[in-house]
């Protein structure tokens, strides 16, 4: 069988199963079973598929995934994340678009502690959006920052998706985690600049000063003390996780374990940890981790079927015949991800593209950490890209019924452009993504 026939069979079956509504992981599992039977020798191929699946999730490098998930679940279910956001709100009093600024700063803080885009958007939407709409904020400044800052959780540690990408692509996990920090902070800075400038122009924060007068102007100490009490200790968790990796004192797995231990100590110190919310956190961690590991099994099997069928090698030789430069090859790969982001989710994108992209990148001499960070940014753009951006759907679930989906789409557009600008900056200035990882010992 020619490689392109095998590729058509595999991809055609995959998209057919997804179109009929089968969950992504099960669609890939079905394709893997078909591929193992066709290309790996019938029953012997199925047995080999099982052995490969076991080895795929037995890797020690996957351990950070449940640990990073648990960090976010602990801080979320014990309420420490809400306390941090409330403290940031008290600190910011005189900026235009105050609540939008709070959404960005609070969402970035929670992103540095949770690594969950969905949890970030859902929590900020529930906590901040009703008050912002009540005070007459423009929908772009009310919904846009909350959706945009949710995607930052995909970039900066602790990001379970970055760990997943590193595991599937064979890229340094610590390099990806640390490499996403500067791009994530650049996005947050861009969001802040846009919100402040837009608010000054449209006076979207009308009513904030009146609310301040109702409760009286607090002293400097009254505004700063909650920040030092509720925010600085939690940011210390982020510093401990990243600092240990940068200094070479701990691997990503060990840093994740330090993060969980620090989170537990924090919840005990604040006296917010109970047996009930501990069990809820453990249960949610288990659910998310099992889903991720199941996806990893399916993705690894899919990659192996493409290799055994000759599809990967055939497509690789076809593209290399065009003799594209590394830069234009990178642009092409990012363009494919951006297009796919309009219609499918981030996990599916990784599972479909990585078996092709990583051999191409290795053959062209492309820095894998640089490419990996840009892929994460491109997938983050997919979270806000109509019609099926995941965070758009999450926002639709928390907004009042009077707000229609086109308004949510419109609110995301300015922040999509800011994220695209950051992606272009990383593409033209690779050191923005590789600078911090190069400092790691």
From TrEMBL:
Chief location: membrane
Xref: InterPro entries: DctM, TRAP_DctM
Key word Heme present: no
Origin: domain of life: Bacteria
A GO term, aspect molecular function: transmembrane transporter activity
Pfam families: DctM (PF06808)
Protein name as it appears in the record: TRAP transporter large permease protein
Organism from which the protein derives: Marinobacterium stanieri
Classification of source organism: Bacteria, Pseudomonadati, Pseudomonadota, Gammaproteobacteria, Oceanospirillales
